[in-house]
Amino acid sequence: MKGRKSELKLTVMRLSIIFLLLVTMPGQAISEVTYQALDTVSAGLVFPDDVAFSDDQKIYVTDAEANKILIFDANNILLKSMVVTRPTAVATGPVYRYVGSNDMYHVKVLDSDDKVINYLGGINQFGQPRNIEVDPQTGDVYVLDDVREKIYVYTAYGERLLREISLESKSLPVDLAFFNNRLYILDQPLVRNIHGARVKVIETNGTPYASFDFYGSSSNQLNKPKGIAIDSHGVMYITDSFHGVVMCFDATTGNYLGVIENADEAMTMPKGLSITSMGKLYVAAPRTRSLKIFGINTALVQGRSINITPLALGFNTVMIGDGIGSQSVTVVSNGTNSVTLGVIELSGAEAGELLIVSDNCSGVTLSSLSSCTIEIKPMPTSIGAKSATLVIPSNATDTAREVGLSYVASGRPDIAATPANHDFTSVLIGTLSDQKSLSIINNGAADLTISSIGLTGDNPEDYRIISDLCTGVLMPEETCKIDILFAPASEGTKAASVKIESDDPDEPQILISLTGLGYGYPGIRIYPVNMNFDSLVLDEVSDSLVATVSNIGTTNMTLGSVSITGVDSGDFIVSTDGCSNTLLTPNSSCLISVSFSPVSSTGVKQANIAIPSNDPDNPTSNLLITGRVIIAPQVDIGNETLNSRSRGRWVTIYIELPDGYFVEQINIDSVILDEVNGQYIDPPLNTSGPVEIGDNNGNGVPDLMVKFDRQMLMDLLVHGINDITVTGELLDGTVFEQVSTVNYNE
After folding, report:
1. pLDDT digits over 38-85, tens only?
2. Which of 198, 290, 329, 399: CA 20 to 30 A from 223?
3. pLDDT confidence of 487, banded at 50, 70, 90?
4. What is the pLDDT of residues 180-196, one digit of tens each?
């Protein structure tokens, strides 16, 4: 009967009458309970098996087949779903929510935004977390482990295991519920190989209190119980998958009170259920892929009575100085007569750590079904766990009502960094500045977590963090240091910032500005560093040699006009010039070609190629160029053909000098044969044997006859025509050189 409210039949012994649930509360008159089927929720559900209702009016449903937790609002609208592998149970407390899972057998702790913030005890802590329940008085969390047959009790955040409660062997517990500060355990004890149906009541320390045996096949007995919930009036609701109904019992006496069923659509195998303070009963019906919602109507208690919700109020961890919001406590007059409230006050040693910010209850007389609220907020002055009690006196016949208040106060971290900026002044491009340091201190009263430190801004690439001793946790008053270098890659002013991110609530991000000026120079390099030309006779021109001029600096280089300077500058020629008046960017180059063309006397010639530039260290660079001017005599070989079988000790060579030179001026000891077929001989062949001046070719010009060892020369020759080079000097140092040929036959 989706979307329609209608009074359903309560079938007890299958009679079509409206059944009245009669509940006898200690010290109170009988109250009547009827029910209505309000709605059926199926959006997104595949196999719902547990349900819980939170103080902020959200409905949490586990779906084992879909591997999800689905969250609905109070109007049954699906808000969102969370992926949870193999979920088993869900529970809600004043501050946190709890989700059990058979994937790694753990219980997740969720905050009010449904984000996972912790695990009860960690991962793989349980054999199977079958059910979870929160103590409404203390906020402690009870986890039912049906594999290990234990109940584990944790603090609300899950940071500490308080105790373990051992259960009977082979009891097969299935669900938990709280009522009157006692724990109700729904189980199926194994008796003669048959699982029964029982509710065992224990104190929160594990001491047995009572036990109710409900097993049987009759319509007022349990056969396969799956879930239990107890409302504030002491009505105990238990789902029975065998009958497909919710059975109702008195939580104090165990008396059967009746049954809740859906006349239009049977609740095949109902499982988990949850009852709210407003009288809504939520039942998970996995076989129909839905959540059944019933309205429970309890008649007023006779006389003066009040209902206070919640009975325990917890806040998230509060930082000293934070303006955290308040939470409210509602007082409802649920009796037939008016109730007068006394002065609402905080009690306990730490009452001063909380503040009543709004109170429209003190001294008020509440008529039947009227209500009032009190707003309370934490006001911590010191660090640590805080607890107090909100006392609500009244003339109600109920026992005095108190609300437990608790929270944990933590200090605030407070980050400070010095200095606020760094100026690295001027640094040469391509080099590193001296390092500069930043100091960070935690001036707060709680640990400061620095999550990241990095560079940002216009030019972060020009700076380097070379040492970071700050990322991590700084305790109060602890300091750390960051070291930074400036490494400019180009000219100009470079700006960046060191970005420091932390959990300081006031300054989650701080920026330390960095400035520096990058400057550079052009740098000239000439390769090769000098040029040496082969020897030439006057008026010959050599092949060109090439010099490369490069800018190895970091800024543009301007070249001036290239020129040849020096005493012998006239003997060299710049044959091609690609450098004069040229702009070279960093890492670029140009070429200069030079030739040797001697026009003056013999001897060594030397000059410089002068290359002006704006290199501050080398405004004019000089490339040394050298060459040698020689005379070319006529050289004749007496034996133009040599044969390995011929006899003789010497090879005779005749040297005839050109006009203006005389063979008498030849330094005999300087005459050598130093090259064969273009390959230098090391060591060269020196003359040996007799030397004389004559006229071998009869042309009237004297020549000098010299001799070389025949066998030594033949060892250097190859078969056929060979070029041999003869060199020497005149007594004044003038060099002569000539190439002649000889035929060698083996």
Report:
1. 889 999 999 999 999 998 889 999 999 999 999 999 899 999 999 999
2. 290
3. very high
4. 889 999 998 776 566 77
Pairing outcome for strands 318-319 and 68-72: unpaired
Partners of residue 481 on adjacent β-strands = 439
Q: Which two tokens stand for residue 391?
A: 């006392």
As a whole number of angstroms, the distance between CA 42 and CA 284 comes to 10
CB atoms within 10 A of CB 65: 14
Mean pLDDT of the 109-117 span: 93
Measure the CA–CA gap between 71 and 282, rounded to whole angstroms. 13
Cβ proximity of 727 and 653 under 8 Å:
no
Question: Tokens for 580?
Answer: 């004069």
CA distances from 113 to 76, 97, 116, 329, 387 (A): 18, 10, 9, 21, 24
What is each CA distance from 2 to 34, 48, 81, 224, 593, in whole angstroms? 19, 17, 22, 27, 99
- Of residues 498 and 300, the one with the higher pLDDT is 498
* CA 298 distance to own-chain centroid: 56
Question: What CA–CA distance (Å, rounded) separates 314 from 112?
Answer: 12
DSSP one-letter code for 666: B
- CA distances, 527 to each of 296, 548, 592, 736 (Å): 100, 5, 10, 31
CA nearest neighbour of 506 among 420, 452, 446: 446
Q: Which two structure tokens, joined as six digits, stand for 186? A: 């729904």
Residue 559 DSSP class = B
Instruction: Give the integer Cα–Cα distance in Å for 67 and 81.
Output: 10
- The pLDDT, as a whole number, for residue 51 is 97
| DSSP E strand boundaries for 487-561 | 492-502, 509-519, 524-527, 530-532, 536-537, 545-551, 557-558
Rounded to 5 degrees, φ, ψ at 43 are -60, 120
pLDDT of residue 263: 61
Structural contact between residues 720 and 615, judged by C-beta atoms closer than 8 angstroms: no
The confidence score (pLDDT) of residue 296 equals: 84
- Residue entry with tokens 């070989």: 637
> If pLDDT is split at 50, 70 and 90, which confidence band does 174 have?
very high
Query: Which of 256-270, 324-338, 577-591 has the highest mean predicted lDDT (pLDDT)?
Result: 577-591
**What rounded mean pLDDT belongs to the chain?**
88
Q: Reduce the DSSP state of residue 287 to 3 states and report it.
A: helix
What does the chain come to in residues? Answer: 746
pLDDT in tens, 408-430: 888 889 999 999 999 999 999 98
Strand partners, 290: 285
Handedness of CA 673, 676, 679, 685 (dihedral sign): negative
Contact 392, 341 (CB under 8 A): yes
Which amino acid, 317? T
Average pLDDT on 26-46 reads: 71
Residue-level pLDDT at 690: 85
Rounded CA separation 587/733 (Å): 45
Bridge partner residues of 30 (DSSP): none
- Are 506 and 414 in contact by the 8 Å Cβ rule? The answer is yes
**Cross-sheet strand order for the sheet of 198-203:** 173-179, 182-187, 198-203, 208-213
One-letter amino acid at 54 equals S
